[in-house]
Amino acid sequence: MRWSYLLPRLTLLLLLWAFFFFAFDPLLKWGMIKGIEKGTKAKAEIAVLKTSFLHPSLKIAGLAIGDSKEEYRNLLEFSELSFSAEGAPLLEKKLVVDSASLKGLRFGTPRKTSGKLPLVKEEPSELVDALVAESKGFALERAADVKTDVAADYKVDPAELESVKLAKQLEESYQKDYSDISSRVNAKKYEAGLDAMKARYEKAKGEKNFARQAKDYADIAKEVKKLTADFKKDKDEAEAALAKAKDAFKAVEEARKKDMAAVMAKMKLPSLDTQSIARMLAGPLIAEKTAQAMKWMGLARKYMPANTKGVLKNEARRGREVHFPKENAYPTLLVRRLELTGELGEDPLEYSGTVEGLTTQPQVYGRPTTAVIKGAKGARRLDFKTSVDATGEEIKTASELSYAGMPVAQLQLGSPSSFMVEITNGTGAFEASLKTAGEELSGKAAFRLAGASFKPKADNIKAAPLRSAVESSFAGLSSAVIGAEIAGTIKSPKLAINTDLANALSKAFSGAMGAEVKKAQEAAQKKVDEALKPYRAKLDNMAAAKQAELEGKLKDAEAKVTGAGEKLLKDLTPGKMKLPKFKL
Fold first, then answer.
1. How many domains does the chain fold into?
2. 162-179 per-position pLDDT tens digit
C-alpha cells in the first residue's frame, strides 16, 4: 500500500470535510447578514443557518431585519425558511428548488435592541418632507381679523413659485422630448429603403425567368409592407409620446394650487381649497405610507434580476466556446414554488400564500414571478396578489391589495402646529392597486373608515366662531373616505390626495371667516396667476408650435412613404408581371 500516495489525499479530504462541517455555515451566515444590512441600511440577525450537502438543503431560522427609520422596530422577521435543491441542476452550477417553505413572516414587529447601524443615515424623502411642511404651514392665526389690504402688502416672487419652476422644467424637457419624437418619424430613412426597393423592382422587371421574377416580386412586396408597417408604428408611437408629454402640463395647474396655499399660509390665512385642506389633513400620513412602499419597491428593484439572458455568453482568452442548446435550460437560481405563512397586525391576522417562479434569470425561465396571499379572521379579510414580469425589454409589475375589517384603535390626521383630528375605535377597509412599466408608475388607493369617533383638536384656532364652526363640522360624524392617486416615475412620484373631511372643513372655514378672507384669497390668487402667466404662455405657445410642426412633418412623411409604398405595391401586382410566351 502506497501511504505516500494516500495520506496527502486523505488529509485533503479531511480538511475539506472539516471546512464544510465547521466553517462553511458560519461564513455563509456572516455573508448573508452583511449583504442584508448593506441593502436595508439596518441591523440584521439570523439565529440559525444550517446547510446539508449529502441531500442539498438550506435552513434559516430566526431572521430579523431592523427598520432604518424606527430604531426599535423590525422591518420584517420570520421564524424559518427551508428548502432542498434538485441534484441534476447542481452539476451545471444551477440552484433549482422545486418547493420551499417560509414560516412566520411578520412586519413592523418591536425589537429589544437598536436596529440602527453606525455611520449610516437614512436618506430623506422629498415627498414626505414637502407634505409635512405644507401641513405644518396651514395657517389659522388671522382667521378672525383679516385686513382688507393683507394681499396688497404681500409680494410674490416668481422664482419661489413651484408652478413657475415646473413650467421652466417642462419647457426644457419638452424640447428634448420633441427632438426624440421628431427623430422617430424621419421620412428620409424610409424613402431610402423605398428607393432601394424600386431599384430592385426595375431590375426584376427585366427578368426573363417567370418563376424567378414572381419570387422577386413577392419578396419586394413583403419588404414594402413591412417598411410601411414600421413607419405606421413609429408614427403612432410618436403621436402617443407627444400627447403624453403635453398631458404633463396639467401638473402646472396642480402646482399653481399649491402655490396658492403656500401664499395664503405666509399671509397667516388658511386656504379654502379642498385639495389643500386634504393635503393638510391626510398628506403626512399618506406620504409616510407611500414612502415606505417606495422603499420596499426600491429594495426589490435593487435585487431584481437584469432583463437580459446573458447566460450563453462566455469570454475566453483563446478560441471560442460553442454552446449546444438544451431542451430544458435552467436559470442560475430558480424557486418554482414558495409556500409562506405569517401574521399581520397587533391583533394577529394569520395569512398564507404562495410565490411562484422566483428566479434570477426571468428571460431564461420565460414566465413572470407571481404571488398570491390570503388571510381571514372573523370579519377581517386580506387579499393580495402581484405579478413581476421581467421577461421583456422592461420590467412590468401589477399589484392589488384589499384589507377589509381592519381595526382602527387610534389615528391622527393633520399637524399639531395647524389643526388635528383624532380618530378612534373605527373599522377600516383599504383597497389599492399599482402598476409599473420601467420607471413609470401609476396607482390609486382608498381607505374607508366606519363606526369611528372624530375629535377635532382646534386649540390653535383663536377665533371662537371659527373654532366652533370647525368643531361642529365633525359633530355626529362616524365615517370618512381618504383617497390617493400616484403617478410619475419611481424616482420622482407625484401624489394627489382627496378626502370628504376636506369638504366639511372647507364649508366651516368659508362660513365662519366672512367675505374678507375670500377677498384676500382672490387677491393672492391674482398675484400668483400674474407671476405665472408669462411662463405658462411661453410653455403653451412653444408646445402649440411644436405640435403644429410635428403634425405637418407627420402628414408630409405619411404622404411620401405611404403613397410611394402603395404605388410600388400596385406595380408589383400579378397583372404587371411579364408572362412567358409559348409557341403552339
1. 1
2. 888 888 888 777 777 777
